[in-house]
């Protein structure tokens, strides 16, 4: 399975946020899918998007939920200082 998250370039993010998001999201994905070794890529692009290749429809819905929860809980895992 391959997971690609694109974040709009216009999204204001503090320094280090992309790396922290990638680390936290990867940790949560590996915990949710322990038997798989998904390739996870997070990058800037023209718009926000989630692409899941090689997974079931249910997997994409679960990954989307994990991404949303990760994004919304940034105050818990990201320290901008």
Fold and architecture overview:
This protein has helices spanning 17-32, 57-72, 74-77; strands at residues 2-8, 39-45, 49-53. The chain is α+β, with helices and mostly antiparallel strands. It has a single domain (2-76), classed as DinI-like (Protein Binding, DinI Protein, Chain A, 2-Layer Sandwich), CATH 3.30.910. Strand 1, helix 1 (17-32) and strand 2 (39-45) form a beta-alpha-beta unit. The model has no long low-confidence stretch (mean pLDDT 92).
Separation of the first and last Cα atoms:
34 Å
CATH architecture: 2-Layer Sandwich
Biggest sheet: strands side by side, in what order? 2-1-3
Q: Helices and strands: which structural class? A: alpha+beta
Main β sheet profile = 3 strands, mixed
Number of strands: 3
- Give the CATH topology: Protein Binding, DinI Protein, Chain A
**CATH class identity:** Alpha Beta
The overall pLDDT, averaged over residues, is 92
Shape by Cα distribution: globular
Query: Total number of helical segments?
Result: 3
Radius of gyration of CA atoms, rounded to a whole number: 12 Å
Question: Helix and strand succession?
Answer: EHEEHH
Number of structural domains? 1
SS strand fraction: 15-25%
Q: Are there runs of 5+ residues with pLDDT below 50, and where?
A: none
CATH homologous superfamily heading: DinI-like
Based on the structure, what is the oligomeric state of the protein chains?
single chain
Percent helix, as a range, is: 40-55%
